[in-house]
Design a protein that fits this description.
Structural class: alpha+beta
Strand content: 25-35%
Strand order of the largest sheet: 6-4-3-7
Largest sheet: 4 strands, antiparallel
Number of strands: 15
Distance between the termini: 17 Å
Length: 240
């Protein structure tokens, strides 16, 4: 998550060399003092995403080699630059940055360091990040890793999950449609037309004086968009 709120929304997608990011992580972990964020002092290593003179990740550590404040106007060639967005190497870096981040610039303290380290330890050659204004996500899988027409689960927002069919996907978002979910019934007491005890027992409502009021058919919902990393295999027991 971003370490401080922002009123503007990031909708960027960027990819970094895992070895370059690993060097920034190593630098951060070797330091004992750190650059503050907007909330105040920081006491742990982290990565800062900077969208300005290029797009890059850098260590938040301060040591003898880190003497100047982070800014969006200055960049150091040793930072981990996003592919295609390195002002020291890419002639069209500004156009690439605009495509990914529109007119947004800024500095964003992140808490992705541990997640990125896991991918590096697994031998990943590239680290892919995407942002939506509220969080900076590390994407482990690509759209091509998912089966269009396949069945998955996504968090429902109601404390559980919806079973969905994957309609389309890119490397940040998926278009899904609910399929195979149980309808949700509401009941109301109806003294004039009580249910039989057998019918009430079958429907599990435990009373003979309740009748159907309304059915919410989740599968009737129109296709909708979810973050790609929200897709879960049917045997994936991640918390919703």
């Amino acid at each position: 998550m971003l370490s401080y709120p922002t009123e503007r929304h990031l909708h960027g997608y960027s990819q970094f060399s895992a070895s370059a990011v690993a060097a920034q992580i190593a630098h951060a972990r070797a330091c004992k003092t750190f650059l503050p964020n907007w909330n105040g002092p920081v006491d742990r290593p982290a990565l800062i995403l900077i969208v300005g003179n290029g797009v890059h990740l850098r260590s938040n550590g301060i040591d003898g080699t880190t003497t100047r404040i982070v800014t969006t106007e200055q960049a150091d060639p040793s930072f981990a630059f996003a592919n295609g967005m390195n002002p020291f190497r890419d002639t069209d870096w500004m156009a690439q940055r605009r495509m990914a981040f529109r007119d947004l610039t800024g500095q964003f303290y992140t808490d992705i360091l541990d997640d990125v380290q896991v991918l590096i330890d697994r031998g990943r050659g590239a680290i892919r990040l995407a942002t939506d204004g509220h969080s900076i996500r590390v994407f482990v899988r690509r759209a091509s890793d998912y089966l269009i027409g396949g069945t998955y689960e996504v968090p429902s927002g109601l404390g559980g999950t919806f079973r969905v069919i994957l309609k389309d996907a890119c490397d940040t978002f998926a278009i899904v449609q609910n399929c195979g979910n149980s309808a949700f019934w509401e009941y109301e007491q109806d003294e004039a037309a009580p249910m039989s005890r057998e019918r009430a027992a079958r429907q599990g409502i435990g009373a003979s004086t309740y009748s159907h009021k309304r059915c919410e058919d989740f599968d009737a919902m129109q296709p909708y968009r979810v973050p790609l990393d929200a897709l879960m295999e049917l045997d994936d027991r991640r918390a919703a």
